[in-house]
């Protein structure tokens, strides 16, 4: 009986440690907000061409675990995307998540009306390829929307 108890305790400990490791593999809301602010500062200092190249670099300073920068114009065109280069240059105004939410339209509304804020939707995690709940922080800079999301 004592061996069974020890085995169960070890299994529970291992599961707990694995859960902690998973949590560290995901970016936090504070980290996403900080990455957007860093990206806006980079845009201001380096201009669009250099900044977009940095944002699109999958091994660059604007990619951390499941965190990446995306940039849209106010018409819904993707100008930079750190996780999916196939989206760059496309009009994504009608892009819907798994629940039918027009996410880019919501990004634009938040940017226009508040200047910055969070939008909730469902999106594939680039690390796991599983559709998950996601919240993206967006911030308006000039005529651009700079965003970074977290998977929950």
TrEMBL record:
Keywords: Cell membrane, Kinase, Membrane, Signal, Transferase, Transmembrane, Transmembrane helix. It is a multi-pass membrane protein. SMART domains: Cache_2 (SM01049). Residues 21-105 form the Single Cache domain. Gene3D superfamilies: PAS domain. Residues 1-23 form the signal peptide. Pfam families: sCache_2. One of its GO terms (molecular function) is kinase activity. Its main location: membrane. It is found in: Cell membrane. InterPro entries: sCache_2 (IPR033480). This is Histidine kinase. It comes from Duganella qianjiadongensis.
